[in-house]
Amino acid sequence: MLRGFPKGHKIEKNNKLTGPIRILGISSGKRSQYDCAAEDPASLWLLKLALREAEKAGAKTQLIDLRDLQIGACKECYSTCPAQCRFNEKINMCDCYKNKEDHFFIDKNKVLPIEHAYDHLDKKTFFEIYHDHGRFAKRDDMWLVYEAMRKADGIIFATSTNYYGRPALFQAMFSRMCALDGGVESLWGDGKNLKNSIKYAKDPKAQYKQRLYGRWCAFINCSKEGDSVSPNLMKACTMLGMKTIPLGVAYKVNWYDDPTHRKDVPNTKKDEYTLSLTRRIGKTIVEEAKSGHRYYGRYSTTV
Q1: Burial zone of 110 (CB within 10 Å; 0-12 exposed, 13-18 middle, 19+ buried)
Q2: Do residue 124 and residue 51 come from a single domain?
């Protein structure tokens, strides 16, 4: 992607965060003590450690566990035309997914949240609509991530390496961040009219807002394959305009030398090098945020 900034551009003065420093932690491991893995991700334990250190440094923290959210895949409409990707800052949603609740389309004029539909429909009708993809619209929880990111001074991503790539939950979430990196708000509500998008893109004064620009980031990775994920995430976050803190990666490699595969978490908790890196991330990301102006977001002329 090409990047460009308007001549003489200044930082947006409307995007200054106030109040306590806010640090967001995002856990992307699917493993769970209540599911077939029978244990939570080691990266989640490290992430919580980093967030505790951030709290000690005076920050307010938030943890988002992607296991708890339902996030649809990016529909990649921006590849047709960058202005096809739209974002509404008031409700923190992209216009590919506009349902914060599961909805039933009863008829052309009546739409009900699933809870209300359950109370008002007979059992047969309820399940007929539930299994009809044209009449049952699932909720999308990405707005919770968008909202938390826009309130945060810094974001700590906790991942693993799965077949030398990003874990599935993380990739689904991260691909949707394009809406924060150029989603056009002025075209919201036009039904994704492609003519409007093309017209917008052809305007030499058209600008695309990088909403994560200037925010700090750091990475935690626990894997059996080594950490081939964090370097690529650094590049992606840099493209989004984010800044990686000094010593911004904590990692732990649990090799395949344990036939039971049950020592990964205990070994991670005892690895002083990994623990020191993790604690440093929690402390440093707060220090970097405190030393900055806390103005976030910038406009780009191309995406």
Answers
A1: exposed
A2: no
